[in-house]
Design brief:
The structure holds two protein chains of two kinds.
Chain A (H helix, E strand, L loop, with lengths): L1 H10 L3 H4 L3 H40 L2 H4 L3 E2 L4 E2 L2 H32 L2 H16 L2 H28 L5 H4 L10 H26 L2 H9 L4 H30 L2 H6 L17 H8 L5 H32 L3
Antiparallel strand pairs in A: 1-2
Helix pairs in contact in A: 3-14, 5-9, 5-11, 6-9, 7-9, 9-11, 10-11, 11-14, 13-14
Chain B lengths: L1 H9 L12 H39 L2 H5 L13 H32 L4 H15 L2 H16 L4 H25 L3 H9 L4 H12 L1 H16 L3 H4 L20 H9 L4 H32 L3
Classes of the chains: A mainly alpha, B mainly alpha.
Chain lengths: 323, 299
């Protein structure tokens, strides 16, 4: 309302001020057009730089760059496999832990939560996304890792020792709390707010009538969630999960703190490893020559993977969400 | 609906009307409710734990010297993080100053000029990708774009890197808020003979103002704690940086990163103090942004 009256007042202003010059009008249009193009060129710039910078490494090592697990600065031999495997594994752990919790939070917020509690709880979950990643790193390294080592790794290691598969996967050679599993857990906490808030919005968009009719024929909350809400929202929830995956793949600082930064391929989830992002963060400033090209090539791989994941996320979410 | 929900909340034991409900259905239903509530409590617990850790570890390190003295060199006693705090403020303000005009104008293009066009759809898609793109890659990009050609690290490169992270946030919120402005307002303006730019500036922007400001504040909160893009652009140093912002510019996130992992006791204390300062500022900004939006009742 206020806006309308403002506009009416405008017409009573002196005639000189009323006229916007056509030049300004055109200039404004071009400025907004140009700004929109800047957004486009930034993305093109990122992919261009990564390809330009990584090209020498791709040319030198060929396809072997992706499959080789060597990373030897002295011999100038580089391969991406350890970092790629570390990135994928840590992100996968994050999803396995984070997705059920996120869905639980979204269901609580939309179905179970009393109305007065909804806003504060939503805010708390969203604030988890505002905490800087370096703080997660410090929490992970100084608070979580020691507890994790003492109460999970050490007891678990003594239990599984000697067992066929578990004895390898869950065996901690050095129970320091630092490693792949810790990175995955920290990443899970970091992606929860993103997945939870998008899923909450998706569930909110499902027409209330559907829910009410299910309750009306005597369904329990579980049956409403399982047979009405999830089928309705299914594809979009997968989109939300993909968005979380995109975040987990590229997360840098928190992972750099807790993953241990070792270039070693290990079957144990408790062993230190590294991800693409953590390796770039650790080595780029001291790198030169081929090492720098190899790191940029790693960046290129990370970009392509996250681009695909995020693009899929966007397409899946868009199916239901029409603004 | 409310009565149904309230009903489902109430019964701790099986309500009378559940008489014909099979036990397994009841158990599944109870399990869902308990697990969902537990998970939510877990999320809140994580935030509480992190804040508590920061308070416990950070308050001990807070002293006037933290805000007045520069970062200490290796092995020296005492010191503060004054240069890092000021450096972070400068980089963040620089980033927001660059990002706000670009973000607002690009968002305006998406919501007003390009509405429904193919180009707008592509840019919206690209913007969503940038919104979640790994921030370390933005650091690499700006390193190649500015640091290498300019021959050294600089605050300008750091500001641009932060701006690239802020722009998508501002574009998204601007577009979303402008879309909430009813078309009839624009038509009324156009009917009075106002050119498109006047309609946008004096009607659309004015109506969406609170939401757009919220977007800028959220973008500020987002970039204030970013570390990864600064590692290769603004870097860090332990002195007051030169006024032309060339060379390394000290900043809080990278200082925290370096100090937290250092073997010196006073460095670690400063890192915790810095972590407390930066997190509280960011959470305060995020809460202010939310309150602002709520007050305006746009959503």
């Amino acid at each position: 309302m206020a806006v309308v009256s403002d506009k009416v007042n405008l017409s009573s202003m002196p005639a000189v001020r009323r006229r916007t010059s056509p030049a300004f009008d055109q200039g404004f249009r071009w400025a907004s057009y140009g700004s929109a193009l800047i957004v486009l060129s930034v993305l093109a710039g990122i992919i261009g730089t990564m390809m330009y910078g990584g090209w020498p490494a791709f040319r030198e090592f060929g396809f072997g760059f992706i499959t080789s697990s060597a990373w030897n600065v002295g011999k100038d031999q580089y391969g991406a496999w350890v970092a790629i495997a570390g990135t994928l594994t840590s992100a996968l752990i994050a999803l396995v832990i984070g997705v059920p919790i996120s869905l639980g939070i979204a269901i609580f917020l939309t179905q179970l939560c009393p109305p007065w509690l909804r806003r504060p709880v939503s805010t708390v979950i969203e604030l988890l996304a505002a905490v800087p990643s370096i703080i997660y790193g410090m929490w992970g390294l100084f608070v979580f890792a020691p507890l994790f080592a003492k109460y999970v790794q050490m007891p678990l290691t003594s239990i599984v020792e000697g067992m066929p598969i578990l004895g390898t996967v869950l065996y901690a050679r050095v129970p320091s709390g630092v490693g792949m599993m810790t990175a995955g857990i920290i990443l899970a906490i970091m992606i929860i707010p993103f997945i939870a808030s998008i899923t909450r919005d998706i569930l909110d968009q499902i027409p209330t009538v559907l829910r009410e009719s299910a309750y009306g024929i005597g369904c329990t909350t579980w049956e409403v969630v399982r047979h009405v809400l999830l089928p309705q929202a299914g594809v979009s929830i997968i989109g939300a999960v993909m968005l979380g995956l995109g975040r987990a793949l590229g997360e840098t600082m928190a992972v750099t703190f807790v993953i241990g930064n070792a270039n070693r391929l290990s079957l144990s989830l408790f062993d230190p490893s590294s991800t693409i992002a953590s390796r770039i963060a650790n080595e780029f400033n001291e790198a030169s020559g081929m090492q720098m090209n190899a790191l940029l090539a790693l960046g290129c791989i990370l970009f392509v993977v996250t681009f695909i994941v995020l693009a899929l996320a966007r397409l899946l979410i868009a199916r239901v969400k029409t603004h | 609906m409310d009565t149904v929900a309230a009903y489902n909340h109430s019964g701790a034991a099986t309500p009378p009307s559940w008489g014909r409900v099979r036990r397994s259905r009841y158990v599944a239903d109870r399990a869902l409710k308990i697990i969902c509530t537990l998970f939510t409590a877990l999320g809140a617990f994580a935030l509480g734990w992190i804040l508590l850790m920061l308070l416990v570890e950070g308050i001990g390190g807070l002293s006037p010297a933290v805000f007045t003295e520069t970062t200490p060199g290796p092995g020296t006693e005492g010191g503060g993080i004054a240069n890092a705090i000021v450096g972070s403020l400068i980089l963040t303000v620089l980033g927001i100053l660059v990002a706000t005009p670009i973000g607002v104008l690009a968002g305006t293009y998406l919501a007003e000029y390009g509405k429904g066009s193919k180009l707008a759809a592509v840019i919206r898609f690209v913007n969503d990708i940038l919104l979640a793109a790994p921030s370390i890659l933005i650091g690499l990009f700006v390193y190649m774009l500015m640091v290498e050609p300019m021959g050294g690290y600089s605050g300008w490169a750091g500001g641009v890197a932060l701006a690239i992270i802020a722009v998508p946030v501002i574009v998204r919120s601007t577009e979303d808020m402008l879309r909430l402005v009813p078309g009839s307002l624009r038509e009324a303006g156009a009917a009075l003979g106002a050119p498109m730019s006047t309609v946008i500036v004096k009607i659309s922007w004015k109506a969406a103002r609170a939401g757009m400001v919220t977007g800028v504040i959220l973008a500020t909160a987002r970039i204030a704690g970013e570390t990864a893009p600064l590692l290769f652009t603004a870097l860090n140093n332990s002195f007051w940086f030169s006024p032309n912002l060339m060379g390394g510019v000290s900043n809080l996130p990278v200082t925290i990163y370096q100090f937290a992992l250092a073997p010196y006791q006073n460095w670690r204390e400063l890192a915790w103090a810095g972590a407390l300062i930066i997190t509280l500022s960011i959470l305060a900004l995020s809460i202010v942004a939310r309150l602002l939006l709520k007050k305006d009742q746009v959503r």
